Amino acid sequence: MTTTTSVTGDYTLDMSHSTIGFTARHAMVTKVRGRFADVAGTGHFDVDDPARSRVEVVIQAKSIDTGNADRDNHLRSNDFLAMDEFPEIRFTSTSVERAGDDRYTVQGDLTIKGVTKPVAIDFEHTGAATDPFGNQRIGFEGSTTINRKDWGVNWNAPLEAGGVLVGEKVTLEFDISAVKTA
């Protein structure tokens, strides 16, 4: 069992064991899921004083992957992420608060397409362990829902039967494994 003292510390995101993804409504009848493959992140987690915790994540917009090359290229275009002009999506925490046993709310600034807005992400601390290679790991799962139009991601197409092709609400989903740094 990992002690409180061993959990508190600085961490680097391990993307080979993490997923940063999203879900959006498509054609009013289903959801499209995707993820970002090129993500870097660091943070400090203080289990005794969560207010001392912080996180910063940088996502390369071009790494978007929904399993469909045509859709991914459209999402990279000026209609959506405009990755040529805005290659990075960035999140920087502004506060971390305990929200219950093993639960935390991380407030921060999310920047998409050069627009920065505050968001709150609810996380569950899913555990800590030492892996077979001697690395101390910590895990978190969380999500938040944003309105993509708040960041200038406005493209849409009307449907013949009513409604639109792409929903405005996007759920951001985080399944995080991070490794403690020396």
UniProtKB/TrEMBL annotation:
Pfam family, one: YceI
InterPro entries membership: Lipid/polyisoprenoid-bd_YceI, TTHA0802/YceI-like_sf
Domain of life: Bacteria
Domain Lipid/polyisoprenoid-binding YceI-like: from-to ranges: 10-179
Membership in a protein family: Belongs to the UPF0312 family.
PANTHER family: PROTEIN YCEI
Protein known as: Polyisoprenoid-binding protein
The organism of origin for this protein: Acidiferrimicrobium australe
